[in-house]
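Anyone up for a design puzzle?
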């Protein structure tokens, strides 16, 4: 309704300047807020005439200064500031914590929306109400003389200061955390707009079969589609290790997954297998805008599954407008085998091989089981190329990691290589199998690189190829190329902690500890329960600064978790750390967890008696040390005789002879081992052999020769670290010599 306001006499009021002021307001009901505003503007008492009501209110001349003063008195400004700061803090908590707890993104948006809506409400409440000892009251009902707004304002001041301190602390933490945890520019983060349009991740397909044992078959369909797409050079296709981490019944946030994998598109699907029938459903999503691009269902005989897989891959390639060469199209349409039982055996073996990669503790068991399944597969279908290639990989893995380092095992791998070459000599899979065999079986890096180059042309998205190229680059001293190829492997397999760790090891070998720390933290974030990955970051503090405290804290925590955890860090961390701390009791505890057959330390396999001798030496028990080293020598000599062409056991034998005081024999064996595998042949193992030779010279009293070797090796990648030279006991005889101290200082952290 329209009301007319007039003064007590019914005339229009005048301002001090003589201007008339006429107030017309629309009032549906009484408005306390409006009346409060009127008071703040100090309008003189007016009469409100309405068609259905008439009353008097206090008002006055409009005075902005008094209005703003009233805003200040009622603490509206402070409420606004406090609200803004607390709102920012809440948004930080939501954006940082919610994703960690896997709370969906809509919850974050809801928090932000509620905060925005609450802001004007908070200001209105601050204006219209006042907090009193009796509770919340309307401001007009509080006597100004009894108002405690100044006390409330002081409380708001303290609140603002406290929250600001929290904000500063969060900003400092984020800045420090960013320095430690954010990937370097070598592994850049990309916004959605920067994601390559022709990129895709094929997520694990759901198993809708009534028989849940067919889960391996659903994984096989997904893997074959992924493999077909990976043959197209015009596409970027994420490797299986990274996408398999999204397997399971959890609701998938496809845009987040795509961002994590750095792809624009995601393929989802399901498989239903029943007797000799199969149904495959697939849908392509553009994750940049979360829209469906393509979807289709296929029904057919089980034997048709290969044609279905190839058709899906080809349609996906067309949807992504990928250029498909005749060779690539032909490779996609190849039928791996006509024997579905053999195919099932092959898929089960691949699952075991994959499990060995993500669960290293089961690698030995998985490898031998995979061999049995693959042997059955090729027995049913001798022309099954992929099964022969997988046999090469598993046999060489068993040989390389000393599960069965025998000529017999090497011959088994060789037989599978010949079968693959006989079947399809130009296949990318055949070239990859040959490369692995040359690399792991014979340490023939040049031939391995030749085969990898051929394999890479046929399998342009195979992360394993780039990983092996990078590892061989590292062995051949091409460190920049090694980093570039390992980064490419990480780009294609961004959630493969093993590949990321290899990149970290490369930075570590170059003594680029900050970059190594960033990379190891990235691997640890993917596998936070990994015992090894947990020790890598504090190991950087030891190597870079000779600081054992961070590693000791982590080792203590791991050992407290139980015997199995303690065993995993017994040698590389616990025992070596105890020696460096000169703590015999801690060394004895670690020794109890080292396998009775001994263990590998920095590439070299030492018998258990070797570690017993080091502990006795730490205890200054000379007879006990001599007895243990004598036992270690007998065991190692057997290995040298069984492996006459291997430099590693010979170098270990030389170290044992040095501890036993057999100077001439020790030096001769150490030099022979270095001649067998010089740095020019292997830039990593060669450096380790020279380091062992320097240790032999130091132990046998040849100080000048030891210092000469140390001067050489300290300037090479993979050489001894600052922490090792500062704390390892074998260098004690060199301490105080200016030449040694100069070498140590050259590795010290730069300030």
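Challenge accepted. My sequence:
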């Amino acid at each position: 309704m329209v009301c007319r306001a007039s003064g007590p006499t019914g005339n229009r009021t005048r301002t001090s300047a003589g201007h008339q002021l006429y107030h017309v307001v629309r009032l549906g009901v009484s408005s306390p807020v409006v009346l409060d505003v009127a008071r703040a503007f100090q309008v003189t008492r007016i009469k409100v005439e309405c068609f259905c009501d008439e009353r008097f209110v206090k008002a006055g001349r409009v005075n902005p200064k008094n209005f703003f003063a009233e805003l200040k008195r009622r603490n509206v400004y402070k409420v606004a500031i406090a609200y803004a700061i607390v709102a920012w803090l809440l948004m930080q908590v939501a954006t940082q914590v919610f994703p960690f707890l896997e709370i969906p993104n809509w919850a974050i948006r809801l928090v932000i929306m509620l905060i925005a809506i609450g802001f004007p409400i908070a200001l209105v409440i601050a204006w219209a109400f006042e907090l009193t000892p009796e509770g919340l009251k309307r401001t007009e009902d509080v006597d100004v003389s009894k108002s405690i707004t100044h006390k409330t304002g002081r409380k708001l001041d303290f609140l603002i200061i406290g929250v600001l301190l929290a904000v500063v602390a969060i900003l400092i933490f984020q800045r420090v955390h960013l320095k430690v945890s954010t990937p370097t520019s070598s592994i850049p983060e990309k916004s959605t707009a920067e994601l390559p349009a022709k990129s895709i991740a094929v997520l694990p397909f759901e198993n809708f079969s009534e028989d849940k044992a067919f889960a391996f078959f659903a994984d096989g369909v997904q893997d074959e589609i992924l493999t077909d797409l990976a043959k197209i050079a015009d596409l970027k296709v994420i490797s299986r290790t990274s996408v398999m981490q999204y397997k399971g019944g959890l609701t998938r946030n496809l845009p987040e997954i795509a961002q994590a994998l750095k792809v624009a598109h995601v393929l989802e699907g399901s498989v239903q297998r029943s007797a000799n029938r199969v149904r495959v459903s697939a849908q392509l999503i553009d994750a940049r805008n979360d829209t469906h691009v393509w979807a289709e269902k296929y029904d057919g005989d089980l034997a048709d599954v290969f044609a279905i897989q190839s058709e899906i891959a080809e349609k996906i390639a067309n949807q992504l407008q990928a250029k498909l060469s005749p060779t690539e199209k032909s490779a996609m349409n190849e039928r791996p085998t006509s024997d579905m039982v053999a195919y099932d055996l092959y898929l089960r073996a691949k699952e075991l091989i994959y499990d060995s990669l993500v669960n290293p503790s089961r690698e030995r068991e998985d490898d031998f089981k995979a061999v049995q399944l693959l042997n059955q597969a090729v027995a049913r279908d001798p022309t099954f190329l992929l099964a022969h290639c997988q046999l090469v990989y598993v046999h060489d893995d068993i040989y390389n990691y000393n599960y069965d380092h025998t000529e017999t095992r090497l011959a088994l791998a060789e037989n599978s290589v010949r079968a693959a070459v006989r079947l399809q000599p130009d296949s990318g899979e055949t070239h990859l199998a040959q490369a692995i065999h040359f690399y792991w079986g014979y340490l023939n890096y040049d031939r391995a690189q030749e085969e990898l180059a051929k394999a890479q042309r046929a399998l342009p998205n195979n992360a394993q190829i780039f990983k092996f190229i990078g590892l061989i680059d590292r062995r051949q001293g091409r460190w920049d190329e090694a980093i570039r190829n390992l980064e490419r492997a990480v780009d294609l397999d961004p959630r493969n902690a093993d590949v990321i760790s290899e990149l970290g090891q490369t930075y570590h070998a170059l003594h680029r500890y900050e970059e190594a720390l960033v990379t190891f933290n990235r691997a640890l974030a993917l596998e936070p329960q990994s015992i090894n990955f947990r020790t890598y970051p504090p190991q950087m503090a030891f190597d870079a600064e000779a600081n054992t405290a961070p590693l000791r804290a982590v080792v203590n925590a791991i050992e407290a978790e139980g015997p199995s955890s303690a065993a995993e860090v017994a040698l590389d961390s616990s025992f070596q750390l105890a020696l460096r701390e000169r703590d015999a009791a801690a060394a004895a505890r670690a020794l109890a967890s080292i396998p009775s057959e001994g263990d590998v330390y920095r590439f070299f396999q030492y018998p258990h008696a070797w570690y017993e001798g080091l502990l006795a030496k730490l205890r200054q028990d000379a007879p006990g040390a001599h007895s243990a080293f004598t036992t270690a020598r007998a065991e190692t000599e057997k290995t040298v005789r069984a492996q006459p062409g291997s430099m590693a056991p010979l170098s270990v034998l030389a170290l044992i002879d040095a501890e036993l005081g057999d100077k001439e024999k020790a030096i001769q064996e150490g030099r022979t081992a270095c001649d067998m595998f010089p740095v020019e042949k292997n830039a990593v193992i060669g450096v380790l052999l020279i380091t062992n030779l320097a240790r032999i010279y130091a132990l046998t009293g040849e100080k000048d020769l030891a210092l000469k070797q140390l001067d050489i090796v300290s300037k090479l990648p993979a050489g001894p670290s600052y922490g090792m030279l500062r704390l390892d006991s074998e260098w004690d005889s060199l301490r105080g010599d200016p030449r040694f101290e100069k070498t140590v200082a050259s590795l010290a952290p730069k300030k």
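A detail worth pointing out: Confidence is low (pLDDT under 50) at residues 1-31, 40-62, 174-189.
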